[in-house]
Amino acid sequence: MAFGLKPGKQFERQVIKFLRKEIITRADMVMYENPVTITSFVCVRSAGGIHDFYSEGDYWWPDPANPDGPYIQRDGMTNPDNFVEHRKAMIRLSQIVGSLASAYKITGDEKYVSKAFTHLKAWFADPETMMNPSLLYAQAIKGRYTGRGIGIIDTIQLMEVAQAIRVMENAKCVDRQLLAAVKSWFTEYLEWLMTHQYSKDEMNARNNHATCWVMQVAAFARLTGDQKIMDFCRARYRDILLPNQMAPDGSFPEELRRTKPYGYSLFNLDAMTMTCLILSDKNNDLISYQTADGKSLKKGIEFLYPFVTDKDKWTYPHDVMYWDEWPVAQPFLVLGAREFGVKEWFETWKSLDHFPVVEEVIRNLPVRNPVIWFD
User: Fold this and answer.
1) Which residues contact 369 (CB under 8 A, 6 or more apart)?
2) Is 43 left (phi over 0), alpha (psi -120 to 50) or beta?
3) Neighbour-count burial of 341, counting CB atoms closer than 10 A to its CB (0-12 exposed, 13-18 middle, 19+ buried)
4) pLDDT tens digits, residue range 3-61?
5) How many CB atoms lie within 10 A of CB 315?
6) Are 21-181 and 204-368 in the same CATH fold?
7) Whole-prediction pTM value?
8) Domain boundaries, the chain
9) What CATH fold (topology level) applies to the domain 204-368?
10) Under 8 Å CB-to-CB from 217, ≥6 apart: which residues?
11) pLDDT per position as a tens digit, 119-148
């Protein structure tokens, strides 16, 4: 069912009207928050230094038969004792900067921009507190690996940071030298992502990890103006992600075979939606693109949507954890409604939780501020 509205600004105004009060309230609250970077949290198990991002694999646990030995996997079961403070700090950055950029976009008040750049300086430009532009020590496993390519998924939390910078960069209050330094950090991180073997391993994954690789690389390349990398990402979506990950019915078999098939399906569809949105322009329409056998973003949304409106219809196994916490206000609903003009998707999005508090849900919902994505 179509909106009967022109897309673009009219739709954006509806979204802003719905979220405006909450956006401004949250932005005003974080105006009092000071920067907290990864240098505030040290884990003795990290093989890196104080400026190196470190995290430990979520689904790895001590071996009851060998408590001091290498950890063993329990897929889908999060070990609450693993170190994730750096990831939490990065999520906090994304939430704060996303909120401030959203408030700036709808009010034009540059106080939000000034505050956001204090956080950006701390993370990406201040030698005392900044993070190194690499991910050598993410998703480590005790007794097995000091870091893994699979850990690159942790920096999907920087996607909305990159987009927020794009929204705010032309504000009069922005220090041009600081902006250049922040963009330089993302340029360096992109170079690492395009060359290190960890990243190549992640790019060649068969499931949501590959989607998230393309999604975040595309977001960072758009911020830095790297058209060559954006074209590379477009080819990955058209030639690899869509044809190899999606089944003819619009489902994602690699996600359905996991111990959390529902949550992972939502997550991968969100990532695919954002990939298409970031990489589409007047010369490249990935949003409407479909393969010769009919696979497309719209087909993916159409497959999953009935299970969003009524989870009782879900015919696959339930997730081993966090089954009750999903769905929330998934980005594919609001952005899909905008692109395809389906009113029901928009109404469903409005009815869901826009500000979840469960950590597992938050980390798998890296797009929390839809208004900054309306170019």
Assistant:
1) 23, 98, 99, 101, 102, 160, 164
2) beta
3) middle
4) 444 467 899 999 999 999 999 999 999 999 999 999 999 999 999 999 999 999 889 89
5) 5
6) yes
7) 0.95
8) 21-181, 204-368
9) Glycosyltransferase (1.50.10)
10) 190, 193, 194, 229, 233
11) 999 999 999 999 999 999 999 999 999 999
pLDDT band at 1 (very low <50, low <70, confident <90, very high): very low
Residue 317: CB atoms within 10 Å: 14
Instruction: For the chain, state the CA radius of gyration.
Output: 20
**The total number of residues written for the chain in this structure:** 375
DSSP classification of residue 34? P
Q: What is the dihedral of CA 200, 203, 207, 213, to 10 degrees?
A: 130
d(CA 173, CA 164): 15
Please identify, in words, the CATH class of the domain defined by 21-181.
mainly alpha
Q: Are 117 and 27 in contact (CB under 8 A)?
A: no
What tokens does 296 get? 């497309």
Nearest to 248 by CA among 290, 298, 304, 295: 295
Three-class HEC string of 72-140: EECCCCCCCCCCCHHHHHHHHHHHHHHHHHHHHHHHCCCHHHHHHHHHHHHHHCCCCCCCCCCCCEEEE
How is residue 208 written in tokens? 């949501």
